[in-house]
Write a structure and sequence with these properties.
Length: 305
């Protein structure tokens, strides 16, 4: 648990995340923070420009915490900026995106007042941060043919029906995917594979698939790699059901391993995605910042250090 002192709160928010819940509750959120004895500095998402300016000049001693409101992409911008400027303030999360995979891992509620109870509390836990080509990610980096699913899914559809939008888009793309030859290099082993899709996970879920990486822990210093190998198209459907239930790591069509470093190379370019946004170009060099973040959690339910 981090010792938390009273002071200012930096409130970083994306008014467009998810269904726009935040902008309808901005006054209420500020009121709750002020009632708890904090002065609030709101910072609106603006392609990362404003948070960059604020955190590059902030006096960390004047602040109690950062409260970030939005989806994984918003949190990614906030964390990247914090680490770039060596900011070590604890971070609270008000989930307001489509899937909220990072918040889901920490069992954070979507109810605004329950989330504020946690954000204004004093219980924190440590979290790792992944790195790829010099940038940070909090939850997952993905690459391969199916990455386009997230990037092509209509934002209005995602806001209307949530993670189901990814499933519908994914089903429509299946017949168009082709395997890609990749070389995966860790500190102790090299894998040569043909894959359709792969993820490098810090957390458990991505795009609404809640058990995509069922063995992941965000404070173990390890990345969980899940690669979906070349397979007959007829085997996709049963594998999808295994993914939904978290049983796929044992499937013959899945390569699963843990590592603290990884290099991904491929014979051709492939789309990449970091925390739901466009990612880096290959080759990809992965690493870990172990236990870098302090995240506010519910002291009544969170059982891990």
């Amino acid at each position: 648990m981090t010792k938390i002192a009273k002071g200012k709160i930096l409130l970083y928010y994306n008014p467009y995340s998810g269904n726009g819940m935040f902008k309808n509750n901005l006054d209420h959120i500020i009121d709750r923070c002020q009632d708890a004895g904090y002065q609030v500095m709101p910072v609106r998402v603006n392609k990362g420009k404003q948070i960059e300016k604020v955190l590059s000049n902030i006096d960390e001693n004047e602040y109690s915490r950062i409260i970030a409101c939005g989806g994984d992409g918003t949190l990614n911008i906030c964390v990247n900026t914090m680490i770039r400027h060596d900011i070590h303030l604890p971070m609270a999360i008000l989930p307001a995106g489509t899937a909220n995979d990072f918040a889901y891992y920490f069992e954070l509620p979507s109810d605004i007042d329950k989330a504020l109870d946690i954000a204004l509390g004093n219980k924190t836990t440590k979290a790792d941060v992944g790195t790829v080509n010099g940038k940070c990610f909090i939850n997952v980096a993905a690459m391969g043919a199916m990455v386009d699913v997230s990037q092509k899914t209509d934002p209005a559809l995602k806001n209307a029906i949530g993670p189901l939008a990814y499933y519908l888009k994914g089903a429509s793309e299946l017949t168009q995917v082709h395997p890609i030859k990749v070389k995966l290099t860790t500190s102790d082993k090299v894998y040569d594979e043909e894959i359709y899709f792969m993820t490098v996970c810090n957390g458990e879920s991505a795009g609404g698939f809640r058990k995509l990486s069922p063995h992941s822990m965000m404070n173990d210093g390890l990345l969980d790699v899940v690669a979906f190998r070349k397979m007959p198209i007829i085997e996709f459907a049963p594998l999808l059901f295994e993914v939904l239930n978290g049983r796929h790591p044992q499937n013959k069509n899945v390569l699963y391993f843990q590592t603290d470093s990884l290099i991904i190379e491929a014979d051709e370019n492939m789309p990449t995605d970091i925390d739901g946004e466009n990612g880096e170009e290959l080759p990809l060099h992965f690493g870990m910042l172990k236990r870098r973040l302090d995240i506010f959690v519910d002291h009544n339910t969170w059982r891990f250090d």
